[in-house]
Amino acid sequence: MKLLTAVIRPEKLAEVKQALTELGCNGLMITEIEGHGTQKGIIQQWRGERYKVDLLPKVKLELLVKDSEVEKIKRVILESARTGEVGDGKIFIFDNVAQVIRIRTGEEGEKAL
Amino acid sequence: MKLLTAVIRPEKLAEVKQALTELGCNGLMITEIEGHGTQKGIIQQWRGERYKVDLLPKVKLELLVKDSEVEKIKRVILESARTGEVGDGKIFIFDNVAQVIRIRTGEEGEKAL
Amino acid sequence: MKLLTAVIRPEKLAEVKQALTELGCNGLMITEIEGHGTQKGIIQQWRGERYKVDLLPKVKLELLVKDSEVEKIKRVILESARTGEVGDGKIFIFDNVAQVIRIRTGEEGEKAL
Amino acid sequence: METKVVMDTIWVLIAAMLVFFMNLGFAMVESGFARAKNAVNILSKNFIVFAVSSLGFLFLGFGLMFGDGNSIFGTNGLFFLGGADNSPATGAAYQGVYSALSWAGVPLMAKFFFQLVFAGTAATIVSGAVAERIKYKSFIVFSFFLTMLIYPVVGHWIWGGGWLYQNGMFDFAGSTVVHSVGGWAALAGVLLLGPRFGKYTANGKIVPIPGHNLSLATLGTLVLWFGWFGFNPGSTMAANPEAISHIVVTTNTAAAAAVLSTTLASWLLFGKPDLGMTLNGGLAGLVAITAACAFVSVGSSLLIGLIAGVLVVVSVVAFDRLKIDDPVGALSVHLVNGIFGTLAVGLFAQDGLTGVATGNGLLFGGGTGLLVAQLMGVVSVGAFVFSAALLVWAALKMTMGIRVSLREEIEGLDRGEHGNEAYPDFLTRKPAYSFNVLSGVAVPQQASQALNKGGVRL
Amino acid sequence: METKVVMDTIWVLIAAMLVFFMNLGFAMVESGFARAKNAVNILSKNFIVFAVSSLGFLFLGFGLMFGDGNSIFGTNGLFFLGGADNSPATGAAYQGVYSALSWAGVPLMAKFFFQLVFAGTAATIVSGAVAERIKYKSFIVFSFFLTMLIYPVVGHWIWGGGWLYQNGMFDFAGSTVVHSVGGWAALAGVLLLGPRFGKYTANGKIVPIPGHNLSLATLGTLVLWFGWFGFNPGSTMAANPEAISHIVVTTNTAAAAAVLSTTLASWLLFGKPDLGMTLNGGLAGLVAITAACAFVSVGSSLLIGLIAGVLVVVSVVAFDRLKIDDPVGALSVHLVNGIFGTLAVGLFAQDGLTGVATGNGLLFGGGTGLLVAQLMGVVSVGAFVFSAALLVWAALKMTMGIRVSLREEIEGLDRGEHGNEAYPDFLTRKPAYSFNVLSGVAVPQQASQALNKGGVRL
Amino acid sequence: METKVVMDTIWVLIAAMLVFFMNLGFAMVESGFARAKNAVNILSKNFIVFAVSSLGFLFLGFGLMFGDGNSIFGTNGLFFLGGADNSPATGAAYQGVYSALSWAGVPLMAKFFFQLVFAGTAATIVSGAVAERIKYKSFIVFSFFLTMLIYPVVGHWIWGGGWLYQNGMFDFAGSTVVHSVGGWAALAGVLLLGPRFGKYTANGKIVPIPGHNLSLATLGTLVLWFGWFGFNPGSTMAANPEAISHIVVTTNTAAAAAVLSTTLASWLLFGKPDLGMTLNGGLAGLVAITAACAFVSVGSSLLIGLIAGVLVVVSVVAFDRLKIDDPVGALSVHLVNGIFGTLAVGLFAQDGLTGVATGNGLLFGGGTGLLVAQLMGVVSVGAFVFSAALLVWAALKMTMGIRVSLREEIEGLDRGEHGNEAYPDFLTRKPAYSFNVLSGVAVPQQASQALNKGGVRL
Ligand SMILES: Nc1ncnc2c1ncn2[C@@H]1O[C@H](COP(=O)(O)OP(=O)(O)O)[C@@H](O)[C@H]1O
Ligand SMILES: Nc1ncnc2c1ncn2[C@@H]1O[C@H](COP(=O)(O)OP(=O)(O)O)[C@@H](O)[C@H]1O
Ligand SMILES: Nc1ncnc2c1ncn2[C@@H]1O[C@H](COP(=O)(O)OP(=O)(O)O)[C@@H](O)[C@H]1O
User: Fold this and answer.
1) Which of F208, F434, F436 lies at the smallest CB-CB distance from A46?
2) Residues of C in contact with A74 (CB under 8 A)
3) Which secondary-structure segment (H or E) carries C61?
4) Are residues F257 and F314 both part of a single domain?
């Protein structure tokens, strides 16, 4: 099992989620975060003083997926989240998932996903 | 040391937290997330048009715990977070915590928990 | 590559971010969380009844960094986030980053950071 | 004469509009004092309740209240303002079936609208106390009963020339007629409903449930204060310069004094000045001066306000200790201070101050006569409204039910009752369940087990 | 005489202030019904539109509307209230160029201010329908055209003694003059703008886009209801006690009835009572009674309200099916019910009810005469306003553009048009893009590709 | 005669209610322009300040301001409206000690209430400028001094028949008496308090601190605009049809013009139209026309508004450059435009326009006489209020302290001063500390070190 974390543009969430659903991949966690990368910030103003907001709203998706599905899911996210412009985000994959338990049933391992 | 991540129902947070406190386990991070699993969404309406909100509010708990305490804490969360209905959430355990540092003192390792 | 997670006081975010920027370290994810540690809570009141809010607002920073830069970044965060009072937070380092992909270009590995 | 009719009508209509505007005040205070997950429900209740009152009072309430009849209720001109009436003729010249209002020299429609907005206020008071757990449907039905039957009957007793009026009771703008009636009806509902889930722990501790928006609550309170300048001075139903100016000042002074005494009291008692309490305090002062505003001096109004402000603090704390769960403080504001205000007439009244022959109150050498008449009013109205309301609530409980399921209550009534969300763009938390009280657990075990079984009705 | 002038002026000015206050109502309803990311833009539009109307109507609008001239528009006293006028002299004593208003016995400035706030209302209606995608600059320019040219011309036809007035059309407080005019102008804009991005999927499904703040929307609706007590009874422009009392009651009854019928209809149709719909319902009742408030009985106003409440539900659903994207329901409220209200005069009018010789409507034995005159008004105003507005919108589209770029629309107009955020301290989400509709995709493929190419204008 | 008293009293009381309602406007503008973490504190201040004013003005303020006495302050009927007075008798028939108000033919209580709401306004102005750092307790005490002593003395000079009045100064509705007085008192407070933590960086850069709720701020501004229709036309204290209609139109025109000129100016200067600035602009126009509304033509009011709108933009930017930290723009709106409005009388006045013999202003051929009298008023009031306020603030600073600890300021005054949260259900961020300004650091090093040492008072 692996933990796949993707930071994407908020406006792309619907598309990514749609694509994941079509793939039969349902379990995920979504966190609204603010990110900072190579993308430059937004200039806002308040009563004439301008300021740069360099933390941009992003959405973080976290999925626990079977090893066998990592590649497929990675590809689907890459396709559905991409606009080609700076700020599209990143995918991080972590491979040390020691255990997964479904709280409702107590089931463990891949069948708990 | 391990990172124990639990996704639970928001309304169960008080109970889980209470149970963890009784166990003497204090350090934790709480994030309000939205999740998607086997649980079906909520139907909302807006001026007569109905729509499904398939992202349900969940709470993510993250605890860094000593190896020796993982099982105990896991069990306590399983008990206090369970309602037996779909949507109870999951526990994920990661075992690759390389380092922990307390910012205030600079202490490292288990005594920093 | 490593994942460096720091839980800090919200009011220290500007300083930490400034320090990281000066270090040339740009990519990060920021999540508003609530935390619970050795710090005691705040007493609030509502129409005469007092209650303790024991979940305090914290900010979680997550950075994926090259192995070679972990120490430097760790030090900078320790310095800029410290006030010396209970509640300063912690740094957790995870070492199992299997893969990083930049969504925009598909680049992988350290050059995707 | 004609000129007087015009001027009085302008005054009465504008005052009535201000009282109408109080609906906005109530909606904002009550939703601000509740949780975000129930905001749509409370807004819906406060919005529809005035529509319900409008039709119910038109259909039957006005006739029952002001129609000529016996000393208990009106029996003439009951339906749809259907009786004969030659308003704005007054006094001896008046011919019609609504003679209890024949002293007011304005058209019937102006009288009706002015009285209607008062009926609406009584109904709105209930909404706040039963908030965050009542079924929307049952609340609507109850409001019909309240504005079509219960409120008009009491109104007949006092303002419709009924037995309390004959008994010498004075309630200038409705500390009893409007506020206590609303308060008693609410109390009956609150007792039958029980407290909100999570409000009291298994071992008896009180869990505070903070309101979701103190900006809205403050806005609402100021709107209510503003509306009260229609409520009290408008109740002259005539643009009598001396009287209305006097009433404006007594009204404002009592409110201001109550704000200060509540702030001080809450500061001393709780260590910090509590905004929610202060807002309640201002309203308490306004409710308390409502019966007496035309009968007492500015100095007395100051005293009445100071007392009301302390009373509301004590009362909010006391209701909470008694485990009577009133999310917005409606009982402390409207019931307790409605009673106090009614009695204050018996204490502070000065005969003929704005032209009304009330006799003097106890503190101005008038003896206990007036005070006893007021007390009799308080007790009899309380007994009648509380029992009648209890009956209606109980009947509703047995038929359509009055409380949402526990699951709905926890998830929020907005989702269960309306399928709406008040603030879909904002990230919210569910605070009542993430607080740990100073000692004791926020979620009592048995309730939690009930939940696990999936939506057991309390 | 002098006394009457004073009383009438007090009445007219206070009524006008209440109508002014409706700007706040519109601002809160419209921003509450839109998303948080566009709140600053909508607030800005609603705030500036009254300033624009004030100057535009002062500069030219008032003269065009009420100046003596031909039956199409005024030609005297066009600019800056520049014509001769000896108001408050009335009738035969009146000497001046604004004789269409010579029946009102108040100073010219009072007439001007009262008419100005009505002009402002018409302009505000447009704001909601075109929300969440229109360029701020273009909206400002359009508002100038509307209040300086389009609105005054129609106003002249009906209130300025023009051809529809001569033709026997009655529109007491402006179901047509204000609400339909605003509605038609909005419809033209909506059609030229097209729907908001993401509102309809590639395969034709409707994606609901919930408003960000139902507390504000409720607040706004109650403010509008309050303001309507200036709008309708104030349109007597005289403190006639019987008339204004009657109008207050018909206005309130229609609104209350509509609230109940909308709630019921939405409950039956959608399974749950929808607050957004109920709010629209109340407004629909108010719009529908606007033309007829002085001409119909309280019973008829109840019926008119009930019908309006159902009409708004059907109409909101219908516009959505037709893919005419109106974020706040302005078309259903102001256009559809403006038309219905105007026709309702032809159905329900009773001759001389408040002193105006309208003749009886169809249902009161007056035959179809009045109804036909009303219908002709509806059709001709619709034809004129829709085409004129379309022309202006089209000209704007070709010159400065009327729609923001797709990128700006997705990121929110607050960022693109204003560089401001309405709620910087709150964590928000972007709901329109995280909902999956019951079937179909929220984000149509081609639109998404357009986005990827970076801000293509639709 | 009697009829006139009735009509005047209706007018004065309704106007006073509208001015009372401005408290709501101020509360919403000021809290909307501040951060969420300080919302409870600002709401509390704005709510209690009117209660404080009510009692302070009743106790002493009214007597000091309008009691007969010398040309500096009143010496008769000082306490609790205690002097003889046979109002509504006017002119020669008047007998009493408040002869400065003997021209107004309304009961004493109506005069008192009308004047009271103005005193309340002056005190509210201070609240916004000192927001987000002042101790609640000290603010309350200061408000007592302001409404009981400072404001009444200046009021006596100008409206109480004192030396500035005798010197030929005109301030119709209080550009100086209310707005400048509030502004000067605020300026003294702001200077003694110093800027908010984080507002200016160590190397001198300005860090913008955006307000947390522009919906509330817009709501508040529209409420203020609405209330101004009581403020200005009500200051006739008589229902004079020509005068009040004229004043309504000049007031509205100036506000509308200012909205447009501010929007344009901010668009040109900053690249985008800034809503916060536009809201300030509307208020600036209203403040500027306040002194002159009865003395100038509609055309002049348009000009005054246009100038005020530009003035506010320049002034907001200038105060920020001067590191005078005024979170809500109160100084630019009330002080700068209060001064400008007072001088505008000297420039634009036309003799006898609404019956007052002001003489002509400079631009209408009246020479510099009037302008000099106005200027003398501006200077002397400024000198007196600024020094008196500075004295009070300094005394408070030395005794109970005026600024919360740095820790409290950073965590929010709601937590430290009140133990409340305004929006407990919503997830919020602390924006002022997560912004990086274009150049420079948001958190100056020394302040940060101070913080680390735990709550050093600045
Ligand atoms: N090294 C990193 N560690 C953590 N998050 C990162 C890192 N680099 C980028 N991110 C996240 O990804 C988002 C997009 O990155 P950005 O560099 O702007 O886009 P792109 O990859 O297209 O250049 C950022 O806003 C941030 O949240
Ligand atoms: N594979 C997964 N990866 C990440 N989060 C998951 C995964 N599966 C479930 N979750 C999280 O757990 C929550 C509950 O899961 P769900 O399947 O609805 O409950 P249950 O385990 O009782 O069937 C989801 O809302 C989601 O946030
Ligand atoms: N074991 C842990 N697991 C997860 N988060 C922790 C843990 N211990 C502390 N934290 C986080 O760090 C924050 C600060 O910790 P706290 O113990 O209050 O400060 P300090 O380290 O100065 O004693 C907490 O609010 C919590 O969010």
Assistant:
1) F208
2) 101
3) strand C56-65
4) yes
Check residues A112 and D268 and name the one with the higher pLDDT: D268
- CA distance between the termini of chain B: 9
Domain termination site, one of D379, D399, D419: D399
Looking at the CA of A92, which ligand is closest?
1
| Residue F436: per-residue pLDDT | 38
Which residues lie below 8 Å from residue F430, measured CB to CB, with a gap of 6+? C10, C11, C13, C57, E425, F35, F37
Pocket of ligand 3 (CB under 6 A): B 27-29, 62-64, 102, 104, 113; C 7, 35-39, 56, 58, 86-90
Determine the structural domain holding residue E376 and report its residue range. Answer: 2-399
CB D3 within 8 A of CB F3: yes
**Residue F19: inside a domain, yes or no?**
yes
Over the stretch F305-346, which tens digit does the pLDDT of each residue have?
999 999 999 999 999 999 999 999 999 999 999 999 999 999
Let me know whether D295 and D441 are in one domain.
Answer: no
Contact between chains at A6 and C64 (C-beta distance less than 8 A): no
Indicate if E199 and E71 belong to the same structural domain. yes
Choose the mutation target among B8, B9, B11, B86 for the interface with D, i.e. most D CBs under 10 Å. Answer: B11
Residues F143 and F209 occupy one common structural domain: yes
Q: Which of D3, D88, D420 is facing E275, going by the closest CB pair? A: D420
Does residue E448 carry a pLDDT above 50?
A: no
Helix (H) or strand (E) holding A36: strand A28-36
Sequence spans of domains, chain A: 2-112
Over range D125-142, report the average pLDDT.
98
Q: Is the separation of the CB atoms in E238 and E105 below 8 Å?
A: yes
Q: Which residue has the higher pLDDT, D432 or E41?
A: E41
Q: Do residues F305 and F169 share a domain?
A: yes
The DSSP secondary-structure symbol of D363 reads G
10 Å CB burial of residue F383 (0-12, 13-18, 19+) is exposed
F304 lies in the same domain as F449: no
Tell whether D448 lies on the interface with B, counting CB pairs under 8 A.
yes
Reduced 3-state DSSP string for F52-76? HHHHHHHHHHHHHHHCCECCCCECC
DSSP D176: I
Interior CA angle at B57 toward B52 and B61, to 5°?
155
Q: What's the total number of domains in chain E?
A: 2
Please judge whether A85 and C97 are an interchain contact, meaning their C-beta atoms are less than 8 angstroms apart.
Answer: no
Chain D residues with CB under 8 Å of B83 CB are 451-452
Mean pLDDT of chain F: 93
pTM: 0.95
Statement to judge: residues D279 and D350 lie in one domain: yes
In a domain, D409, yes or no: no
ipTM metric: 0.95
Instruction: Indicate whether E210 belongs to any domain.
Output: yes
B30 within 8 A of B59, measured Cβ to Cβ? yes
Would you say residue E37 lies in a domain?
yes
The residue of chain F nearest to residue C11, with distances taken between CA atoms, is F433
The ligand that comes nearest to the alpha carbon of residue A10 is: 1
Domain C2-112 has CATH 3.40.190.10: no
Shared-domain flag, residues F444 and F367: no
Each residue's pLDDT tens digit, C80-95: 999 888 999 999 999 8
